[in-house]
């Protein structure tokens, strides 16, 4: 057996990605960057990214029919509405958003907020993984292949 194979499986390629090398997505609000995912590193179980929200900025309400979402707030303060109920999150606090729970993230503090998000498992197709339930703040900024 070669070093690239373990018990008949091919070992995945290890990839390191810098935040500045990932395109910005702003159409749902805030500044989102999917750092590690199927498209750029070949991930098969989910994806992870970094979001930044300026004071008063929000990520519009949505839900994930196939994925849980893990949120770790690195800095600032945010309010996450979970099915309409507010949950305050301070720096260095985390939250699990279960499958099918509507959620909206808003920076309610006086300084920028940065958070890490991870979703898994993946939906059967990318277009099935995210359902918007609120008008998008910047629909004209949708990446190619995403609905506007």
Observed structural traits:
single chain; 148 residues; mainly beta; 5-stranded antiparallel β-sheet; 1 helix; 12 strands; disordered N terminus
Write the layout of secondary structure elements.
Blueprint: E1 5-6, E2 9-10, E3 31-36, H1 38-41, E4 47-53, E5 58-63, E6 68-75, E7 77-82, E8 85-90, E9 94-97, E10 103-107, E11 113-120, E12 131-132
Antiparallel strand pairs: 1-2, 3-4, 4-11, 5-10, 5-12, 6-9, 6-11, 7-8, 7-10
End-to-end Cα distance, whole Å, is 49 Å
Average residue pLDDT: 90
Side by side, the strands of the main sheet go 3-4-11-6-9
Structural class: mainly beta
| Uncertain spans | 1-5
Total helices: the number is 1
- Estimate what percentage of residues fall within beta strands: 35-45%
Gyration radius (Cα, Å) is 16 Å
Major β-sheet profile: 5 strands, antiparallel
Give the tally of β-strands: 12
Principal-axes geometry comes out as: globular
Give the SSE order as H and E letters: EEEHEEEEEEEEE
Tell me roughly what share of residues is in helical segments.
under 10%
Structural account:
The protein is mainly beta and 148 residues long. It has one helix and twelve strands. The protein has a five-stranded antiparallel β-sheet. The chain has a five-stranded antiparallel β-sheet with strand order 8-7-10-5-12, with no helix packed on it. The chain has a two-stranded antiparallel ribbon with strand order 1-2. The longest helix is centred in the first third of the chain and has 4 residues, at 38-41. It is globular, with a radius of gyration of 16 Å.
């Amino acid at each position: 057996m070669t070093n690239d194979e373990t018990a008949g499986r091919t070992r995945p390629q290890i990839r390191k990605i810098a935040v500045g090398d990932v395109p910005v997505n702003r159409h749902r609000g805030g500044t989102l960057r999917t750092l590690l995912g199927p498209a750029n590193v070949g991930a098969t179980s989910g994806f992870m990214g970094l979001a930044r929200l300026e004071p008063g900025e929000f990520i519009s309400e949505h839900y994930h029919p196939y994925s849980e979402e893990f949120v770790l707030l690195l800095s600032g303060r945010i309010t996450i509405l979970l099915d309409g109920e507010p949950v305050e999150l301070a720096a260095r606090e985390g939250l699990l958003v279960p499958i099918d729970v509507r959620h909206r993230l808003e920076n309610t503090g006086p300084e920028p907020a940065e958070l890490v998000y991870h979703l898994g498992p993946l939906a059967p197709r990318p277009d099935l993984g995210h359902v918007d339930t609120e008008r998008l703040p910047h629909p004209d900024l949708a990446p190619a292949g995403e609905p506007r």
